TrEMBL record, chain A:
Stored PANTHER family: INNER MEMBRANE ABC TRANSPORTER PERMEASE PROTEIN YDCV
Domain of life: Bacteria
Protein's cellular compartments: Cell inner membrane; Cell membrane
Protein name stated in the entry: Putative spermidine/putrescine transport system permease protein
Family: Belongs to the binding-protein-dependent transport system permease family.
InterPro entries tied to this protein: MetI-like (IPR000515), MetI-like_sf (IPR035906)
Transmembrane annotation, as ranges: 9-33, 70-89, 96-117, 129-148, 177-198, 236-262
A GO CC term assigned to this protein in UniProt: plasma membrane
The UniProt record lists the keyword Membrane: yes
Listed GO biological process terms: transmembrane transport
Chain segments annotated as coiled-coil in the UniProt record: none
TrEMBL record, chain B:
PROSITE patterns per UniProt: ABC_TM1
Location(s) in or outside the cell: Cell membrane
InterPro entries: MetI-like, MetI-like_sf
Gene Ontology CC annotation, any one: plasma membrane
Protein name per its UniProtKB record: Putative spermidine/putrescine transport system permease protein
Species: Roseicitreum antarcticum
Domain of life according to the entry: Bacteria
TM spans (from-to): 62-82, 91-116, 136-164, 193-219, 239-262
Length: 263, 274
């Protein structure tokens, strides 16, 4: 940004802020690995028994699978409908009305918990749509804005004259899309997929009202578990989720570089 | 053909939003004005109940305090991050992205371990001899606010790093070459140019904390009910659907009002607007 001296107090402040950001996550690791039921200071004993407990609890296994299923399906659906929308918004910017891009901001504007509650009211109860389908619709809406925005951003610098040239040389529009457009937005698609997937896996507010017999997601199950027991299994699940996040971030770092997330 | 191509390509996504977001949320809000007792009956019921009024004010208060601290902490941190370079900078950005990608449950649970009666903070205080009995820190407004600030600071840092990096280098150089001290550059150039971005970030934090569920549920519990936990309680515990719909409608109204007001303000305050 600029070459001005940074005040030493600001640097001290920043160090403290990052300790504040990282400390609690380190403590969760400590709780998962501690031998005792409560994490005490100073910590006593190391053990992996809470991780073993996680895999003994069937509810965690089942909801983890549901979460992965919903995240994969919702992200795939959002990409399938989001990529054409992002393409249209960029390619036909002049012909399309301005309010159309606002449509894809709406899911951000409406509180997630209200979306979940309204889907339960209208879609699940009034229309008798199965709860799993309603949950999937909710998650697709939750991640759609990410997909449209990230892919729009990667299309913004694309020169559509290239596409015109291909078409004028006799390439079919659909074939042109797959051979010219998609390879150019590949990194955007990967970024959108990852952001959407992680958003869906971690979601509480949309899923809160959309659980039923045999259908629940991992975060909702964790909430329910915490209301009944206070034991470090939740810390172990948290650690497993964090390791998943680290793995995903490592993949992103190798393929795209993480800086795109800060855009 | 090309005239319709744009419409056809964006139709599936638009239809999904219209059918499953606009219609259901619209129906929820419409239902609150369609009470047999009259158009405003449900709202009168909400505002005459002292308990629900308290919940609304408490939620607004928590959201405002959370926004204030997140903006302050986020801004000064982003200022340092934006001016760092090379490896240090990428490390600082990654360290802000990681908590953001860690779920809200994990991050709220962390504070449950820290602030609990047998939590790490209490056992640390007793170990040092500062206290001789556990202090109750959970299920207080402070606990909810600390966890919420923790939730939103990374978002604020990343948003504002982007804003600060967009400030043109030559504007700052011009100010410096005209004899402005670093403090004056910060006060008269950097800060005014960052205000629109600050407002956008503040809106994100305010609406996010006003409508949060998991954090107040875990750290505030029954004692510190907020709009989010009240909505859940009305719908799933009391099965009072009209009451729940009213809470949902008030949430939407407040969110939309804040977003519209603040984005308009951000636009007006933007000195770089063309």
């Amino acid at each position: 940004m600029m070459r001005l001296p940074t005040h030493p107090l600001l640097i001290v402040f920043t160090v403290l802020v990052y300790l504040f950001l990282m400390g609690p996550l380190v403590i969760v690791f400590g709780a998962a690995l501690s031998d005792t039921t409560f994490l005490t200071f100073p910590p006593q004993g190391l053990s992996l028994r809470w991780f073993e407990r996680v895999f003994e609890i069937t509810a965690f296994r089942r909801t983890m699978l549901t979460s992965l299923q919903i995240a994969t399906m919702a992200t795939a659906m959002a990409l399938v409908i989001g990529i054409p929308a992002a393409y249209a918004l960029n390619r036909y910017r002049i012909q399309l009305p301005g309010w159309l891009s606002t449509v894809f901001v709406l899911p951000i504007l409406v509180p997630e918990i209200v979306l979940g509650f309204s889907l339960l009211r209208s879609v699940s109860v009034d229309q008798n749509v199965p709860i799993f389908t309603t949950l999937l619709i909710g998650h697709t809406l939750l991640v759609l804005p990410y997909c449209v925005r990230v892919i729009s951003a990667s299309l913004a610098s694309f020169d559509f004259a290239v596409e015109e040239a291909a078409i004028s040389l006799g390439s079919r529009p659909l074939k042109t899309f797959f051979t010219i457009i998609l390879p150019n937005v590949r990194s955007g698609v990967i970024a959108a997929f990852i952001l959407a997937f992680i958003t869906s896996i971690n979601d509480v507010s949309v899923s809160l009202f959309l659980t039923g017999p045999g259908v629940s997601t991992l975060p909702i199950q964790l909430l329910a578990h915490m209301e009944q027991f206070f034991d470090p299994t939740v810390a172990s699940v948290s650690v497993l989720l964090m390791l998943l996040t680290v793995a995903v971030m490592a993949v992103v770092e190798w393929t795209l570089g993480l800086t795109f997330l800060a855009k | 053909m090309t005239r319709f191509a744009g419409w056809i390509l964006s139709l599936p996504a638009t239809a999904l939003v219209a059918l499953f977001l606009v219609l259901p949320v619209g129906a929820t809000i419409a239902a609150t004005f369609a009470d047999p007792l009259g158009i405003t009956a449900l709202y009168e019921a909400f505002f005459t109940s002292g308990f629900r009024r308290t919940v609304l004010w408490r939620t607004l208060e928590i959201a405002l305090i959370t926004t204030f601290f997140s903006v302050i902490v986020g801004f000064f941190t982003a200022y340092v991050v934006a001016r760092a370079s090379g490896r240090v900078k990428s490390l600082l950005i990654i360290a802000a992205v990681f908590p953001l990608l860690t779920g809200v449950i994990v991050r709220s649970f962390a504070w449950l371990i820290i602030l609990g009666r047998n939590g790490i903070l209490n056992s640390f205080l007793q170990w040092t001899g500062l206290t001789d009995a556990p202090i109750s820190m959970l299920y207080t407004q402070g606990a909810v606010i600390v966890a919420m600030v923790y939730l939103f600071v990374p978002l604020m840092i990343l948003t504002l790093v982007g804003v600060l990096e967009n400030i043109p280098e030559d504007v700052i150089q011009a100010a410096t070459s005209l004899g402005a001290t670093p403090a004056a550059v910060f006060r008269q150039v950097v800060f005014p140019l960052a205000v629109p971005g600050l407002i956008v970030g503040a809106v994100l934090v305010f609406t996010g904390s006003f409508t949060a569920y998991a954090t107040p549920a875990l750290l505030g519990g029954e004692r510190q009910m907020t709009m989010g936990t009240l909505l859940h309680q009305q719908a799933m515990v009391s099965f009072n659907w009209p009451g729940a719909s009213t809470v949902a409608a008030i949430m939407v109204i407040v969110t939309v009002a804040v977003v519209l007001l603040m984005t308009r303000m951000a636009r007006r305050l933007n000195p770089m607007a063309t």
